[in-house]
């Protein structure tokens, strides 16, 4: 036990160091190279030179990437625990697409223009989409099996994306802005955009982290969890509610970003085992590092332009998804 705890601490420290490293790279690297002196000056609030101004613009972008990555990593781990489905992911289960459609409808039909409306609408859309996917998967013999969840999620996501396109196409006045947002990215982020989503992200994160013990019991099976005194319905509602809150707020801020919630929990379980008391915080750290690193990569490979982080994570996550399916890892967790 002592050795396991020591290994977990080392792993957590390593992940924390990785997050710090990617944050430093995000601040220092981009279309324009900057000197260390400019980075240090910008961190102190100066923006007198072009280099300092570039770093000053990257700081909120880095913060947004760290927060969004942590939120998506946590949400993915929680969803995989609730559904006992190794293919569960906010993007694959239609949650991100539901949040995106809700925001697009709000903008196009109701002229939403406040952050609070965006966040509330996104959370509502994410929740409705998640419930619809689960209900469809639960139909027929065997209930909501991992494979049926993945298939129903793919079908609902395709339908929601089509509805989103149908809403946007007739609106030339918002089409360009919305289409860019739908790709998913953190470019151009400012602290005024980050501040409104912080309460939702913090609340969702606290709920999910507090669900670790319940997720451990769910992993034993419904009968075992009930026998140990846990209400399966409460455990699922609490964990899923926190995950949906995280996904909705992140989508409102950055657009739909996929595959982070799929890849991260698998990596964390491979390193730390299946105990959600370790998997959840590790997923937050790994998600933050992955999304921030993907954003840096998108800036570097297309200099002087950049590739949105949603495209980079799809390029990373797509092969991982195929690998998981090919390895036959669609059995329940």
UniProtKB/TrEMBL annotation:
<keyword id="KW-0812">Transmembrane</keyword>
<feature type="transmembrane region" description="Helical">
    <location>
        <begin position="279"/>
        <end position="301"/>
    </location>
</feature>
<dbReference type="GO" id="GO:0033214">
    <property type="term" value="P:siderophore-iron import into cell"/>
</dbReference>
<feature type="transmembrane region" description="Helical">
    <location>
        <begin position="307"/>
        <end position="325"/>
    </location>
</feature>
<feature type="transmembrane region" description="Helical">
    <location>
        <begin position="91"/>
        <end position="110"/>
    </location>
</feature>
<feature type="transmembrane region" description="Helical">
    <location>
        <begin position="61"/>
        <end position="79"/>
    </location>
</feature>
<dbReference type="GO" id="GO:0022857">
    <property type="term" value="F:transmembrane transporter activity"/>
</dbReference>
<dbReference type="InterPro" id="IPR000522">
    <property type="entry name" value="ABC_transptr_permease_BtuC"/>
</dbReference>
<feature type="transmembrane region" description="Helical">
    <location>
        <begin position="116"/>
        <end position="137"/>
    </location>
</feature>
<keyword id="KW-0813">Transport</keyword>
<feature type="transmembrane region" description="Helical">
    <location>
        <begin position="181"/>
        <end position="210"/>
    </location>
</feature>
<dbReference type="Pfam" id="PF01032">
    <property type="entry name" value="FecCD"/>
</dbReference>
<protein>
    <submittedName>
        <fullName>Putative siderophore transport system permease protein YfiZ</fullName>
    </submittedName>
</protein>
<dbReference type="InterPro" id="IPR037294">
    <property type="entry name" value="ABC_BtuC-like"/>
</dbReference>
<dbReference type="GO" id="GO:0005886">
    <property type="term" value="C:plasma membrane"/>
</dbReference>
<feature type="transmembrane region" description="Helical">
    <location>
        <begin position="149"/>
        <end position="169"/>
    </location>
</feature>
<keyword id="KW-1133">Transmembrane helix</keyword>
<keyword id="KW-1003">Cell membrane</keyword>
<keyword id="KW-0472">Membrane</keyword>
<comment type="similarity">
    <text>Belongs to the binding-protein-dependent transport system permease family. FecCD subfamily.</text>
</comment>
<dbReference type="InterPro" id="IPR006311">
    <property type="entry name" value="TAT_signal"/>
</dbReference>
């Amino acid at each position: 036990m002592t050795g396991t705890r020591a290994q977990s601490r080392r792993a957590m420290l390593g992940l924390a160091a990785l997050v710090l490293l990617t944050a430093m790279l995000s601040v220092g690297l981009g279309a324009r190279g900057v000197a260390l002196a400019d980075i240090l000056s910008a961190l102190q609030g100066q923006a007198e030179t072009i280099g300092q101004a570039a770093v000053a613009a990257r700081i909120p972008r880095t913060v947004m990437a760290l927060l969004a990555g942590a939120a998506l990593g946590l949400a993915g781990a929680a969803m995989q625990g609730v559904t006992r489905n190794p293919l569960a992911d906010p993007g694959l289960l239609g949650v991100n697409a539901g949040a995106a459609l809700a925001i697009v409808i709000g903008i196009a039909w109701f002229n939403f223009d406040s952050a609070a409306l965006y966040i509330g609408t996104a959370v509502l859309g994410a929740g409705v989409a998640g419930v619809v996917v689960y209900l469809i998967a639960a139909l027929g013999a065997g209930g909501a099996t991992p494979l049926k969840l993945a298939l129903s999620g793919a079908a609902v996501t395709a339908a929601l994306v089509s509805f989103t396109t149908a809403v946007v196409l007739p609106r030339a006045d918002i089409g360009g802005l919305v289409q860019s947002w739908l790709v998913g990215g953190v470019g151009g982020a400012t602290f005024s955009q980050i501040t409104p989503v912080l309460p939702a992200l913090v609340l969702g994160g606290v709920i999910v982290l507090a669900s670790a013990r319940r997720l451990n019991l769910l992993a034993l099976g419904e009968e075992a969890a009930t026998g140990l005194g846990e209400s399966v319905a409460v455990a699922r509602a609490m964990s899923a509610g926190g995950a949906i809150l995280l996904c909705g707020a992140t989508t409102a801020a950055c657009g739909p970003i996929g595959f982070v919630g799929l890849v991260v929990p698998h990596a964390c379980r491979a390193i730390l085992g299946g105990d959600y008391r370790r998997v959840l915080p590790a997923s937050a750290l790994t998600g933050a590092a992955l999304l921030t690193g993907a954003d840096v990569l998108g800036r570097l490979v297309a200099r002087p332009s950049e590739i949105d982080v949603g495209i980079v994570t799809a390029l990373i996550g797509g092969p991982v998804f195929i690998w998981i399916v090919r390895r036959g890892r669609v059995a329940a967790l």
